[in-house]
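Batch manifest, entry 17 of 40.
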Amino acid sequence: MKIYKKPTRDQWTDIVERPRLDLDKLNATVEAVLTDVRQRGDEAVREYERKFDHADLDSLAVTETEMDEAEKLVSDELRDAIILAHHNIKVFHISQRFVGQKVKTQEGVTCWQKSVAIERVGLYIPGGTAPLFSTVLMLATPAKIAGCQEIVLCTPPNSEGKVNPAILVAARIAGVSKIFKAGGVQAIGAMAYGTESVPRVYKIFGPGNQYVMAAKQHVSLDGVAIDMPAGPSEVCVIADRQANAAFVAADLLSQAEHGIDSQVLLITDSEKMLADVQQEVNKQLESLPRKEMASKALDNSRLVLVNSLDEAIDLSNLYAPEHLILQTADYELLSERVVNAGSVFLGPYACESAGDYASGTNHTLPTHGYATAYNGVNLDSYCRKITFQHLTAEGVRHIGPAVELMAAAEQLDAHRNAMTLRLQSLKESK
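Output type: structure tokens
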């Protein structure tokens, strides 16, 4: 981990720089796969499953029999944990329901909004070294609450053509409609364009590797919405001299083990804390099964000593982290100054793992600095707001002349005429 001691503000740009992802090099491959899936449908998806996941599939769809088998393969303890997490996620997201109200902007002019669920959404759940069944809960639970009519899930199978059983159990608990065995770019293409088996969806959610990210970006230019731009996972921890160095190190490593391109950042006003955390990271790293992966991620990471916590929060806001942990004595006061972050964890006991699994907040969050403009997945992510307006004769009299003048000033005579005709009809009816 690179160490910065009391850097000047003109050095902060280097500190907040992320590992660069050159998606341009992937585009030719991604575009070829997407085009193939669009043209040949299921046949193409099955071929890519043989090539990339080494799975020879007769059918892409997960059957009810396979769902029932998965129930038997997941321990009662894990199932109970999934149910607890689902409950908390459900409670938190239900609280986000939109309540619209009718507003009278002028006498006779009433406007309002209605929240309408996206009818068909697609969820991508990575498999690989870490099958993210928790992400099933994070994505499917709010979709169900929002009222999406069809929730389609794609996830890669293993070489035997089986899907991780915890993913299937979580999908059943959260209310997923249809599940398909497809990973990577071919899964994104199947959901974006539709195949004989996989329905075409209107919006795609979920994390993935750089190929999946590139595929999502590509289809977003082709009429399919996506949840947000995304990059490798990251965490920023702000710690003062009273923080628990072991806790801080554990939080840093919990992100570092996501992948070699993940990034972690510690900002502290205590030189002793910086040294203690560095020692704890080295100690805890030795016992991690994903030590090699975490070690490579730490190469992208930084330990920063600043002059004060005021500087720390300013640097964090510039970084705009996916996850921000405030392990400081005055975390409540400091939290009021957070401007750019995906999700914030307050105090020594709010580890980022709690939000990843079971506190109730959503763990699908903006990365790579996108927290300056994007929020994480929430209930609104699955809805559209449709606006309505109603005008009475009185309303036309109130705003009609202004509409005529503005339309004329923009040289849009048909616009002006639409209002002029109504005003004239009201004069004639007197």
